[in-house]
Design a protein that fits this description.
single chain; 60 residues; mainly alpha; transmembrane helix; transmembrane; membrane
Length: 60
């Protein structure tokens, strides 16, 4: 794996793209395209990655 910061940036970018796609495709897929759904799709992966990095940092 490359730099942890680069990895977090990639995950955040992918999560943002998914949130934008759901916002645009939400009515078609019957997914509520609310700000909470979009924010959750961005925040949950980001928090997961930051927690994972923090756990590895504490173990080292």
């Amino acid at each position: 794996m490359g730099s942890p910061i680069g990895f977090v940036v990639k995950v955040f970018a992918i999560a943002t793209l998914i949130a934008v796609a759901i916002k645009h495709l939400g009515p078609t897929l019957a997914i509520p395209a609310t700000p909470a759904v979009s924010l959750g799709l961005v925040c949950l992966p980001t928090l997961g990655i930051l927690g994972w990095l923090g756990w590895h940092w504490l173990r080292s």
